[in-house]
Amino acid sequence: RSSDLLGSFGDNELSPECLDGAQSFLKDDGVSIPSEYTSFLAPISSSKLYNEVRTCREKDRDPEAQFEMPYVVRLHNFHQLSEPQPCFTFCHPNKDAVIDSRSEEH
Asked: pLDDT by residue (tens digit) across 4-20?
């Protein structure tokens, strides 16, 4: 399933690397599903999320470290501060001469 491969952020499960690596098995007229995906980001404010993250402090780490960790959450009580903006897009099959799945757009 593509949703399992894409993960919650579209790149956190090595989707570009896996699909680029499997590309050699795709016929010249083959179609990759998904053929393109874009992740979007938007700034938000959530006192509930802030308070929950604040309690995740680990003893041997910087007191603010938990605020620098990415979290996957289903938001209910939040305020979106601005419109979502595209972060990066991946297209498959990747026809670049040299495949670099780390680039932001290909």
From this structure: 555 555 555 677 777 77
Say which amino acid occupies 98. Answer: V
**Alpha-carbon distance 100 to 106, whole Å?**
8
Q: Cβ of 13: how many Cβ atoms within 10 Å?
A: 14
Residue-wise pLDDT for 86-97, tens only, equals 988 888 887 776
Distance CA 51, CA 72 (A): 16
The three-point CA angle 75-88-18 to 5° equals: 95
Cβ atoms of residues 18 and 32 within 8 Å: no
What are the residues whose beta carbons fall under 8 Å from the beta carbon of 4, sequence distance 6 or more? 13
Contact 93, 30 (CB under 8 A): yes
